């Protein structure tokens, strides 16, 4: 079984930036929860069929793909439906990630799960790596990248786990407050550490 490093962090903390460095510098393969979440509702999937059975074809776009804004609308206005959708999709997403982890060819896998704390998914990883930024930097990067107001950025942050909750599940931490060039030394050191841990686990 592949050694799995779970990677998490809040919005705009730098998860993609860090995961790309592991991949581009060291060839580490990535399994991404957001990608898995899209795949389990692709046309023809069990997930999309179940959504269509419950909500009818209003949750489908004319080309047969999921109408995400319609589904968002349904779950936003009804907590019961939100739970139903989560109970349908979360096990499918988890199963999909496990399947993808079985097909990893690099020394270890990076499992990127943005909402790891919120969904209690840290048990899927052998080790948890948290990307940590201070709130000021996180707000600035969110506003700049997503073109949202400070108030909107603050409400997104408030809906997620906070910095302390994330750090509480961390085995390792990458600090990403500074500019990009500070990341590579941290990632190189972690990569060496993970290779050593993989050897121990053989
Ligand atoms: P999300 O989960 O919200 O998609 P993320 O955690 O994957 O975000 P990234 O997309 O990697 O975060 O980074 C968020 C933004 O911050 C991007 O615009 C990225 O270019 C920028 N950024 C990330 N790290 C740094 C850094 N060290 N210096 C400057 N900008 C950075």
Automatic annotation (TrEMBL):
A Pfam family recorded for this sequence: CoaE
Family membership noted in the UniProt record: Belongs to the CoaE family.
Gene this protein is translated from: coaE
This protein's name: Dephospho-CoA kinase
UniProt cross-references to InterPro entries, sorted A to Z: Depp_CoAkinase (IPR001977), P-loop_NTPase (IPR027417)
Keywords on record: ATP-binding, Coenzyme A biosynthesis, Cytoplasm, Kinase, Nucleotide-binding, Transferase
Primary residence: cytoplasm
GO BP, sorted A to Z: coenzyme A biosynthetic process
Transmembrane segments: none
Free-text function comment from the UniProt entry: Catalyzes the phosphorylation of the 3'-hydroxyl group of dephosphocoenzyme A to form coenzyme A.
């Amino acid at each position: 079984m592949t050694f799995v490093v779970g990677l998490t962090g809040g919005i705009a903390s730098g998860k993609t930036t860090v995961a790309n460095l592991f991949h581009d510098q060291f060839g580490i393969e990535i399994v991404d929860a957001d990608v898995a979440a899209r795949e389990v509702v692709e046309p023809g999937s069990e997930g999309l069929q179940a959504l269509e059975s419950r909500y009818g074809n209003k949750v489908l776009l004319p080309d047969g793909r999921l109408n995400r804004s319609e589904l968002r609308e349904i779950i936003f206005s009804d907590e019961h439906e939100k739970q139903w959708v989560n109970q349908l999709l979360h096990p499918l997403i988890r199963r999909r990630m496990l399947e993808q982890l079985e097909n990893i060819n690099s020394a270890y896998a990076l499992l990127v799960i943005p909402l790891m704390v919120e969904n209690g998914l840290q048990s899927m990883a052998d080790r948890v790596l948290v990307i940590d930024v201070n709130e000021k930097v996180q707000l600035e990067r969110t506003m700049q990248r997503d073109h949202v107001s400070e108030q909107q950025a603050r409400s997104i942050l408030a809906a997620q786990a906070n910095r302390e909750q994330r750090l509480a599940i961390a085995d390792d931490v990458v600090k990403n407050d500074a500019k990009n060039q500070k990341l590579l030394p941290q990632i190189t050191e972690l990569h060496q550490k993970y290779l050593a841990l993989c050897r121990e686990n053989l």
